[in-house]
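Minutes, methods subgroup
Present: GH (chair), OT, SY

1. OT presented the first of two proteins processed in the latest run. Sequence and structure tokens recorded below as shown on screen.
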Amino acid sequence: MSTHQLELPALHSNDPLGFLAALGVLELASAALDQAVRLSWRGLAVPAVLHTEQPLTLDELAELLVGFLPGEPDKEPLPAAPGILGLPRHTGPGAPNDALRMPVEQAHRLLRDFATAERLGNDPRARWFAALVNQLCVTPAKKAKDEPQQEQQDVSGQTSLVRPEGPVWYTESTPLFAASGQMTLANNWVKAAEQCRRDVAHVRAALTGWIRVPDYTGANLDHRSTGDAAMSGDGKSSQRGVPGATWLALHAFAAFRLTGDTMTSGTTAWDTSADLPALIWPIWTSPLTRTGITALLEHPLVRGANLARSAESLTNLGLVGICLATRTKLSNSYGPFEPGQVIWP
């Protein structure tokens, strides 16, 4: 079957935000066109290519993507999988400020419900929920202070101390998102969508030439969103994020399956062997669907200890390169990704 190719000039393979935004385009285009849309790259440090069964221009693609913008971002930030990012935050003592970090029992129930809906009606929420809520890594509620044990009387009238209940264990979210301060995944999705809703030109610009917006943080996905004081006109540091590319990149999270060892949250493209965690991703030139890309992201050779020794096998997988972007470190949290670097060949 012949396919039509559409180059996405602003989404480059060696850039973490560009790579994630391209996967986000594939995610939404596949849902909009209801066909086996595929993605490839021209090579290293060059643009992505979208492959479709029907001819598609950049304007037509941008229009399709705009159709996924939420009408009221603060109420439903993710129309592609409604009801997940709008979940209420758990309000128990010591609960995290992020609604996606919920009691693990609640997460189990929700995933069962979403999985049932998927079996019965091809509902997409189970896949999205599993990509955003990590049930393989849990942390206890924060303990503000020691609370005195309560007293109770038994049937004989004698007083005894009641053992405090055990802690509530909360899920983690995806490590692809680095929360700092009061940031949550949901409110960063809201902010990106609000910027794009305010000016839909941001969506097309994400594909063709990025528009940076003053005082927009960019969800910690792009090192260039943190403006250096030496580079600004007034000598002050400022945020200059790219809302269109960021909004698309957040949709890429659905392609990454979460992993964990109960104490550490990860994904199959996440590396924690160095001092700072890093995203490692492959670059391929053959058109791949979402399923094929997820399989490639998970391939053990992509994160092998000696890539040079595996060069022939990596080439046989259809790869032309592997890139890495390390997280920066802020005072109390992780920050944006560093610039992408080619680690193979």
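2. SY then presented the second protein from the same run.
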Amino acid sequence: MTSVLMVLSAADHWTLNDGSSHPTGVWAEELVEPHRQFRDAGFEITLATPGAVPPTFDPNSLSAAGAGGDDKVGELTDYLASISSALAAPVALSAVTAADFDVVFYPGGHGPMEDLAVDAESGKIMADALASGNPLAVLCHAPAALLAAVDTDGMWPFAGYRMTGFSNEEERLSGLAEKAPWLVEDRLVELGADYSSGDAFQPHSVIDRNLYTGQNPASSGELATAVIAAAAGK
């Protein structure tokens, strides 16, 4: 059975550049849609967070405006309820290694910008997953977590990789760019990523070797589909 580690932020806020806290966490669709696809494909799914803290879901991701309508909110809420026991008892990142899984997948939301971007245990999981050759998938704001990764030489292992993530334009259109202490796109480019983006809030995924990245929540389904195909190919 194919095993997948889904690494979730444990943050419930994002500290803005004025020191205020913006309520956030995991973006619901970015967990639900991949989790549903992995479950339907027969994957064994493990959820992990820093410190084994149950994840918080960004309240906007479960609002009609953020999710895309009341029907979508109902679907997301129902699915999260169906996996509530797993969400309530995630594994600690310190207790898992990339070598134990066939796939590593990071959903986004602004939460990773608060905790996973500076989490050494998460960074090691990412570096090890990349080195393993198995699929490493990172979605929306979760590429922030790539910042914490270093290779055995102390270098950033993702330099030169083609990738995407939540764009500066999307952050601006969301009304948070000016309040952000830093932006995902900017940091990836500064570190040497070959960053690209598609149209704002439209599906866009990039695959480079075993790194799979999706730009935004709308990319959740196609990114999961690509990962499942890759796992089947291996």
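Chair's summary of item 2: Residues 158 and 193 are 7 Å apart (CA to CA).
Next meeting: continue with the remaining queue.
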